Amino acid sequence: MNLWERLFGKEETDSAESRVKAAATLPEHPGPSAARPANTPPSASETSPATVILTKSMFKVSLVARNTKDESLIAPPVEVLVDSGSELTWLPRDLLDGIKVVPLRKRSFSTATKQLVTRESGYAIVSAEGFETVDEVVFAEPGDMALLGVRTLEGFGVMVDNIAHRFVATTTIVAVAS
What residues contact 91, with CB distance under 8 A and at least 6 apart? Predict the structure, then answer.
């Protein structure tokens, strides 16, 4: 099995977690060549997919959800993984049921392992790190991860700083009518 298959699987069906585990079993990367002049990028032979994967950053934030029709119904804070690869925010079903968020429709999702799953979704007020928005949220089933998706990030009006593990407020682009 070659390096690519060890990291990504033959059809790239492994989860991110299994890729990181596979990368951890690889021999230590030798680092930059002493013969390479300063201020020049490393060659392809001096980097590996494992180097790229391990430099990506993931972090969690504490998120609070509220019912859109009765804001006094507030869920306890839940830790969610910031995942700009997920379109929607996924919160545990029992948490959303506890604040009486109503499932409005069923949606199909393709997971990182290329499985097709169907979940219900509804609307909630979500807040994290001082930002807040109303967004569609997925009723996560047991075994699903709690995720903060890209649409919530856009609703917050933030970019993700993966180095400092924080949100950075952005300027909203406004369409101007002439």
Answer: 63, 65, 75, 78, 80, 124, 137, 138, 139, 140, 146
Q: Could you tell me if 78 and 33 are in contact, meaning their C-beta atoms sit under 8 angstroms apart?
A: no
CB atoms under 10 Å from CB of 176, counted, come to 5
**Are 3 and 13 spatial neighbours (Cβ–Cβ below 8 Å)?**
no
**Phi and psi based region of residue 143 (left: phi greater than 0; alpha: psi -120 to 50; beta: remaining):** left
Q: Where are the alpha helices (DSSP H) in 56-158?
A: 93-98, 150-156
Element (H, E) at 133: strand 131-140
Query: Helix and strand tally (H, E) in the chain?
Result: 5, 9
Rounded to two decimals, the pTM is: 0.67
Are β-strands 89-92 and 131-140 bridged in parallel, bridged antiparallel, or unpaired? parallel
Predicted pLDDT of residue 157:
94
Which among 175, 172, 140 has a CA at the least distance from the CA of 154? 172
**Residue 169, token pair as written in the block:** 């407020």
**Average pLDDT of adjacent 10-residue blocks, the chain of 178 residues:** 52 47 46 44 48 60 97 98 93 98 96 91 97 97 95 94 90 75
Residue 66 vs residues 69, 75, 78, 121, 152: alpha-carbon distances, Å: 9, 6, 12, 15, 14
